Here is the input.
Amino acid sequence: MKMKKFIAIILSALMVLSMFAGCVADDVAGPGKNTYNLKTVKEGYLTVITSPDYAPYEFYALDENGNPSLAGFDMALAQYIADYLGLTLEVVPMDFNGIVGEMAAGTADLAIAGLSPDPDREGAMSFSDMYYEGKQAFITTKAKAAQFTDLASTNKAEYQIAAQTGTIQNELAEQYSPNAQLINLVKATDIIAELNSGKIDGAYVEWDVAAAYSANYPDLQILCEVPYEAEGNVIGVNKSNADLLKYVNEALNKCVADGDFAQFVATALDQAAGDNYQGMLDENGKVPTTEAE
Ligand code: ARG
Here is the structure.
């Protein structure tokens, strides 16, 4: 009898201990083994900034209970690179217009945010090799599409045309629709909301993002492709970290050559078609209730 009770106590103590061990392993990954002995802003970690309002690049996928987790091919690529380097991935979400400033300040190792290699940003960061060939689009609604014939027809004072703040799409708007009323919106989702409500007539957005949004909102329509000389996306790398740039390019090229990256894109497109949220979470890590889809 006594022995049985003793065994029961030991067993339950062991159970509690193993539960605790499980928690520690899951919640706090700790620094990585740092395979290439890289200097990063936080030792053993890869700190990546992104702007998760940009499916299929980066966004939140929602599970059946509405719980968000970061998704998109940029985020899969971030995890791949962190694993390759033996670093623990730490993603810091922010609005896109904060990204270049953070890189200039050197507070992050990488910016992975559907970033175009805009020469104006070269002082703030180094650019990796191109990992994705993307193009640019002019997006409008089905209802308004008839008023435009081509890109040149968007250049009229009566039109309100938007682009996301701090993006190269602003330059495209100024280049192709300089006579229109140009509007800057902080989030890509704001652009979509204003298009859907009829407040604006059109917007400049990355092609794949425009395509993903039009798949989810059938009232939207891509008018045409918009020419831009740097057709593709790169990773922004901390400008004082040449070693990191070297190994990021190594990881990136392997990821693309082995076909892993194509798989990330396919998964991201699937997830972008499912339940998702684009934008910033609230202070509890939840989807803000007013903005939930
Ligand atoms: N490719 C554009 C740029 O670099 C827009 C990127 C916006 N990215 C985002 N995650 N919202 O300016």
